[in-house]
Design a protein that fits this description.
Layout: E1 3-6, E2 14-29, E3 32-38, E4 52-59, E5 62-67, E6 78-83, H1 91-98, E7 104-112, E8 121-127, H2 131-143, E9 147-154, H3 163-170, E10 174-178, H4 179-182, H5 187-190, E11 204-209, H6 212-221, E12 230-233, H7 240-243, E13 260-264, E14 269-273, H8 279-285, E15 303-308, E16 311-312, H9 320-325, E17 328-330, E18 335-336, E19 340-343
Parallel strand pairs: 8-9, 8-11, 9-10, 11-12, 13-19
Antiparallel strand pairs: 1-2, 2-3, 2-7, 3-6, 4-5, 4-7, 13-14, 15-17, 15-19, 16-18
Bound molecules: FE2/S2 (inorganic) cluster.
Length: 345
């Protein structure tokens, strides 16, 4: 059984929740497979834009997010690329070992917290499998007539999915940096000249996806850039210290983990979130239906509108501006600085 539903406000409209078939499987690089997913009855799938991802519900509690890396104009199939993560938590191994051509898998989404905003120029930076959301972004930037460059690093040339395709199609716009041949990506040089243009749509935006050390260097190098110029997507949660680095507790050492009241505005209920317990778990235990996936603040599934209260943001999804607005929160990890939160639930 499958369903296509209207997404929450702020998401990309329709989302899907149901079984899809693996229509094709191919090796894209060492330890990377691409899967082409189609509806079993050949139905059209919800539309998506570059930066979107879907959940694969793999059984035994394994739910993993993968960026869509095919052509958004193709409404009959979705394509993902999955790296077999050495020492991973089992999701990528399950995909590699069980999702052969003809297999079926439950898929939810798409959702997009890494959308490509209008700009005159783009600097794309990808590390390893972080190329997946960037791939359709390069096509969109090209189609829009924007200036763009891609700096793409990986362990070895053979491990870099889509590298040859990108280099063939876009030539000098693409700089491939296999680590065993050329060392690490030189972000200091690549991001040395901030574009001071503050106007939306006319300046340069930097999109970066890859392992945590790469994202941290990009964030460091972009401190001299205008706020909001850098957009990142994480595979894993950033540390609480980092995600909360501007927070100063005034109430004691453990104030960020203390109890608070959460009021559900639409259902007129009030619940107490205990110390060390998430808002999501509190709602779940009280029988309040909420969508969630990663439970670690990286996928954006549990994003919830906030009506009142000062959010203690602990996620790895929202930008600094989105956090400052206080309009939404990831209820799987984020908490409250005060005694009360009012949510649009
Ligand atoms: Fe993934 Fe909350 S469930 S961000």
């Amino acid at each position: 059984m499958s369903s296509v539903t209207e997404g929450a406000e702020g998401t990309q409209g329709r989302t899907y929740d149901g079984t899809l078939l693996v229509a094709a499987r191919a090796e894209a690089a060492t330890d990377v497979v691409t899967l082409t997913l189609r509806h079993p009855a050949g139905r059209e799938l919800p539309g998506w834009e570059p930066g979107a991802h879907v959940d694969l519900v793999l059984g035994d509690g394994l739910i993993r997010q993968y960026s869509l890396c095919g052509d958004p104009a193709d409404r009959t199939s979705w394509r993902i690329a999955v790296l077999r993560a050495p020492g991973g938590r089992g999701g990528s191994a399950r995909v590699h070992d069980t999702l052969a051509e003809g297999a079926s898998v439950r898929v939810r989404g798409p959702r997009n917290h890494f959308a490509l905003r209008p700009a005159a120029r783009y600097v794309f930076i990808a590390g390893g499998i972080g190329i997946t959301p960037i791939l359709p972004m390069t096509a969109a930037a090209e189609a829009a007539g924007a200036e763009w460059t891609l700096l793409y690093g990986g362990r070895t040339r053979d491990s870099m999915a889509f590298a040859a395709q990108l280099a063939d199609r876009y030539g000098e716009k693409v700089r491939l940096v296999p680590q065993d041949e050329a060392g690490l990506l030189d972000l200091a040089a690549h991001l040395a000249e901030p574009d001071p243009e503050p106007e939306p749509g006319t300046g340069t935006l930097v999109y970066c996806c890859g392992p945590e050390p790469l994202l941290r260097v990009a964030e460091e190098r972009c401190r001299a850039w205008p706020p909001g110029a850098l957009r990142t997507e994480r595979f894993q949660p950033r540390s609480v210290d980092e995600s909360n680095e501007t927070d100063e507790s005034e109430d004691g050492d453990d104030a960020n983990s203390g109890a608070f009241e959460v009021i559900l505005d639409r259902s007129r209920r009030s619940l107490t979130v205990k110390p060390g317990q998430s808002v999501l778990r509190t709602l779940d235990e009280a029988g309040v239906p909420v969508l969630y996936s990663c439970e670690e603040g990286t996928c954006g599934t549990c994003e919830t509108d906030v009506i009142e209260g000062e959010v203690d943001h602990r996620d790895s999804v929202l930008t600094d501006e989105e956090r400052a607005s206080g309009e939404t929160m990831m209820i799987c990890v984020s908490r409250c600085h005060g005694p009360k939160l009012v949510l649009d639930l």
